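User: Hey, my collaborator sent me this sequence without any context and asked if I could get a structure. I don't really work with proteins. Can you help?
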Amino acid sequence: MSRIDENTNPLRLAVPIFIELLLFMFMGNVDTIMLSKYSDSAVAAVGNANQITNTLLILFNITSAATGIMVAQYIGASKREELNKIYTLGYGMNLILALILGFTFSIFQVHFFELVKMPKELFEDAQSYLSVIMTFLFVPAFFSLSSVILKSHGITKLSMYLAILMNIVNVIGNYTFLFGPFGLPILGVKGVAISTVISRSLAVLIMIIVLVKNLKMSVKISQLLPFPGVLFRQFMKLGLPSAGEPISYQFSQMVIFTFINMMGTATVTTKVYVQIIVWFTFLGSMAIAQANQIVVGQLVGAGKYDAAYRITMKSFRQSLLYTVAISILFIILRFKLIGIFSTNSEIVKLGASILLIDLFVEVGRVSNLVIISALKAAGDVNFPVGVGIFSMWLVSTLFAYILGIHFGLGLVGIWIAMAADEILRGIIMFFRLRSGKWRGKRIVTG
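Assistant: No problem. I've predicted the 3D structure and written it out in structure-token form, which is a compact way to encode the shape of the chain:
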């Protein structure tokens, strides 16, 4: 377990987080790359399915975000006696939510497809994929929560090693189910989903074993008797608004994806391929943001606000430098990068145009990743979600429709709208951090 104080450099924690995120990104994109050798329509179907899945999974941020912030602040305040109650609340709420969401989606899945304007030729593959993912929705729910708890304790390397294991298991599973070596049955996209569930389940099992043995985690119903009303209120006070910003973002992205579906399968496929490339531009910033959040949470829990501010500003500068450098490199190589995934000239040309605009998206996103996570770690959760809801819907989503659909700019118009949203929110969050209004908002007292 790593000791965290005002002298901690978030980069030390960020390196294993970066490798973990890189490997997880690789895992998701390996599915896309391997599916592209199987069927172009399968890529678009799974892209739609993942957009729906990600929208539902983001709801688990309510518990994961609250658990991470509370664990970090309680450790920083040297109040470890309440941790098992926090763990039990987190796992219990995630399990209940996973069962409700999985059951609801299984009944209304066709309505979801129609709602997002998914092309009907993609329905069959999307249903095959989601039938497996939704049945085992509790697996990613437990995975995200377990990972957050480990990182809040400063244990960041385990997730990195598990990401390596998951990639190996996932690639072997994908190959087996997609191409049927040794006469094995070919299951197509359903097999890709099975492979994903198996690899994640293995990682969850290992994380829980480590949490129980090394951190003495105990998750029992008896931990909630008598019911810890104060902890639960803190949980919801942090969780609902803290998750509100990413939930709002994901739902706005779902609406925007609906606009993209209206533009045809080629545009959907272009968006999927561009998203893979774009991941690399903010991967480093995301790692630094997560590491910075761990450090800030513990520093704020200990009442060291000046150190939290200083470290956050340094993390922001490092993230901005990384993102701009990678974005410029990708602009130079844009045609070759899109060409890795497709030889379709329409897709290559459109994708290359999007990568030019994406530089502005990523510059704004840096501030939103690093500063918003720091504000949440400090307990300042209401302001980011208020600004986020306003900007995501009245700037990103509204102008995505106006530019992309009404004025016929297509995917280019949608990316311009997303850039405007990220930059506006980024500027507002930067000045929020500078104002110091987040100080004194920690949830741990005494």
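In plain terms: The mean pLDDT is 87. You can pass these tokens on to your collaborator as they are.
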